[in-house]
Design a protein that fits this description.
By secondary structure, the protein is of the alpha/beta class. The protein is built from 20 helices and 21 strands. The strands form four sheets. Strands 1, 2, 3, 4, 5, 18, 19, 20 and 21 form a nine-stranded mixed beta sheet that branches. A six-stranded parallel beta sheet has the order 9-10-11-12-13-17, with helices on both faces. Strands 6-7-8 form a three-stranded parallel beta sheet, sandwiched between helices. The chain is globular. The two termini are 21 Å apart.
Amino acid sequence: MTFAKISHPLGSAPSLALRQPKWKTRFCCAKLHSLVLGFGLICSNASGETYDVLIRGGQLFDGTGSPWRCADVAIVGERIVEVGPIAADATAKQVIDARGKYVTPGFIDSHSHAAPGILDPKLAAAEPILYQGITTVMINPDGGGPAELLPQLAAIDKQTPGVNVVPLIGHNAVRIAVMGYENRAPKPDELDRMKNYVRAAMELGAFGFSSGPFYTPGKYSKTAEIIELAKVAAKFPGAFYTSHIRDESNYDVGLIKAIDEVIEISEAAKMPGVVTHIKALGPAMWGKSAEAIEHIEAARARGLEIWADQYAYTASGTSLQASLVPGWVQEGGIAAQTARLTNSEQRSGIRKEMLTNLERRGGAHSIMIRLYKADHSLEGKRLDEIARDKVQEPIDTAIDLLVKGGAAIISFNMGDKDLDAFMRQPWTMTCTDGALVPLDQGSEHPRAYGAFPRKLRRYAMERGVITVEQAVHTSSGLTASVFGIKDRGFIRPGAFADVLVIDPATVGDVATYEKPAAYATGMVYVFVNGHLAIANGKVTNERFGRVLLRNKRD
């Protein structure tokens, strides 16, 4: 299947749910519900059937992007068995009155850093993820994760995670395993060893190949190296390539050439390519979304399968090292970097380059510390504020933080117009790029708690940047189709019962940059593989997720 040629019914006009008064949409579904239950005027093949779960009278957004409709949904075991008007005499072990509620597929996070958290028994239930309506996460993005997947997946499976887990194999992971943090091209035997890691992961059931050439050691790779590894993954049906591109700003090759690199790799390897968490980073890049969109559209017009995903925030989250430290300084790992930063002869030159990078990101006030193990009191503070307290120049404060172990940061660097422009594209999916951490650990980016409800509430229901249908589709069915996650992402008979019942009056994000540790609201019921993970707005005490493998689709 060539996804670039799929036509989706994604218009720019507001959905019916937005054009009509809220009372009217609820009345329509309530009236249909009454006709079925009270008079039996609408019949189906389900007359007299008994189900495990019967969701009655909701506004169904089925994940295809089609206009919502009033429908009932029936579940038996792990699967959806009936969708539509279901006869009044049908019974179920549990009947949910969904009148006035949205019924949607479970959301799929195409870029998640939740894997380490899921391995922690205290976090394996994945509560912040479930409260967003996410029922499936894709792990090991940005080229990360382990080079050997089996131990990771076995450990996750042993936990019985609260959500489904889709594994990727990462370029940085296999490069570290073979070459460490050396800044050079691989020797032929080293490239073969990296290929063997990728092949073994794909044979195990990894869905695709991820890269992060913005980060070390992927930063030291040439395009040809990534192509050779992508070709290995491409031999497996349904495989794809997803990348934290080499440059989202103007650090070196620039945003547009970095997107072109994804297109080049996709074309050479003959596999779909995804620009993950697409953005135009830094004031100098604001407005570049138009050119980026043109390049992706041109590639798609040539028949290539190029996609993107995005989180709906104008601040990104990364490390102080990745955002400010030149690549050559990072060569050899943290110890080597620290030695260079503390070398008086090298520090002045490094400092000049770091100043340029700081300006590139919008200056010291645009950097917020979200996790700093050496001194947790700095978390939530801006770099310029910390510098003033220390009576230092901000760049010297940044170097001191790096020497003492580094910090995770929130970087305020995007413009609203670019974010909106990318979101409107029918090829842009939804992601969190979020981790799974304890509620009291540092200042995690709010995207880890609210990315999906935020897109639905603020960008669809309130601002109308996209329709509710688009918001659901790009958070579920589109993602399942692009990444080949079979029988998920849609509400239809035969699909796995990853199903949400959402209260449109309360759905939304609560987490802020200053106080990110806050669960999203509005998920009344969340089903994972046919079982209740959230009931009446509260997580249950059981976990029903599983590891999904590309070569084992059930």
